[in-house]
Description:
Strand order of the largest sheet: 14-13-12-11-15-18
Radius of gyration: 27 Å
Number of strands: 21
Structural class: alpha+beta
Number of helices: 15
Amino acid sequence: MKTAFIPVDYDYFDFEDKNYIRIFGRNSQGKRICVIDSCPIYFWAILEPGLDRKKTEALIEKIKKIKLDIKGRKTKVEAVEFHKKNFLGKEVNALKIFATNYKDLHDIADKLGMKEIIKRRGYDLGFITHYIIEKKINPLQWYEIEGEVIDNSGEFGGIDQELQVDLCMKLESHKKLDMAVFSPKVLSYDIEADEFKIGEGEILMVSLVSEDFKKVITWKTGAGKKPKADYVEVVKNEKELLEKFVYYVKKISPDFLVGYFSDGFDLPYLKARAIKLKVQLTLGLDNTQPRFFRGALPTGKISGIVHVDLMKFIQTAYSQYMQSETLSLNEVSKEFLGDTKKDFKFKHSSKIKKEEWDSYFEYNLHDSVLAYGLFQKFWPDMLEFTRIMQEPVFSVSRNGMSNNVEDYIIHNLDRFNEIPEKKPIHEEIGIRMRREKYEGAFVFEPTPGLYEDVCIFDFTSFWPSIIVTFNLSRSSFSEEKGKDSKDSLEMEIKDKKFYFSKKPEFFPQMLKEIIEKRKQYKHELKERPDSIKKARSNAFKLLANASYGYQGFFGARYYCPEASAAATAISRD
Length: 573
């Protein structure tokens, strides 16, 4: 079968010890499709310089014999290939080591403690990132796909029988299509509860808003008083409220389930109450419950439906432009939608008068109306960020700008034949955080007064232009002077000299392209303005501006505080 297809959400599963990707999306008729695919699993071993052919071949044969049995999962080295690659801009000899299961790459890498191997890389990208890089099936990009329809076949353990989709396919081939339009199905939601601490109080109501759909589900009406509004649906108790919430999410079947601070409050609260009341919160297209990943804030993921916490994306993409000093739903909606939350003073349900409940329902519904409006406002930005970073919307909508810069680098490394650098481990991050801070930019202290004949000027992409012009990056950095001093830039900071090669390296080259694209899209926006061009221009602007901070970020793969220190020193000069 052949059809047009746009990937929206990605996850993966294991079957017979191997990894398979599941891509959820739509076809051009709006039908929901799940595509199942796989890709080669591998990582890189960088060899010591000068290792001769005979020793290399002996090493390859030794690595081929590696077999592991991890928690009952059998995995092995499937194949080994020799390649000429680049690592941090230098040509290296490397082995491409193929394995059975992506989860076991780290364990296989641990078995390569041989003196002939100086570095092991590429085992920590994450399977979804690895798959997108390998197969070039990018999120929110249209493709013509061809494959075998899986229909009650029993293949992959009968996976298609549990999926709530119109069509399940095993991918055979794909090609990119020049189609731009995609109008996702969106459902926003908001809850009201008796307590702010997660799960401590009862959930009183849940509001849902989609195109031509508005609903408040509640089991509280105030002494049996019938609600005035027809959008209010009254159920027997909190347990039935949760079940009804699941019912409507499944019935509407959105691509995006949208909340505001929903990672931090709404979704974990729903999950906590569902556990307490023994309700299955089966929101996923495979009937799974939301999964939570811990961090500074929990992150709630739903299989096949992209859960979007709008506050996180606005904080990354727009907070620097905002007039508002807070990221509250009220202030953000006021600035971007010209609308605000309804006026209702929070109090425990036992203290709400029966005539106040209608106002409470309206308050709850309007929060979902605002979230829905904000999603429509920022959808072009989310679309362009996702297409540019080439990572799924779920990740891009939550990433800080340093993560976005890194995603852009990772997905463009193959153009430079580069092996990816590894992420720093916890101890390494601690050492970086304790490093002495470098001096920042020069700030001129103005003398208050009235000035005449003032000329104002601005540098275009000031920080990224410095990085590009002087080739400041991890791969060009050296603590020693090169053989020919004309080929390197010498910097002296805090009585210490270090050097940057003038040979163009991949990070400054990528950054140069980003600056040029920013200029191009800014010009196109000026000529023929529309929301997509504006979003594209904004994405490249933020990407360029974040590049300076990325190199000084302690969690970066391509951490190089010397490059950041050199940039500020040059700017002061």
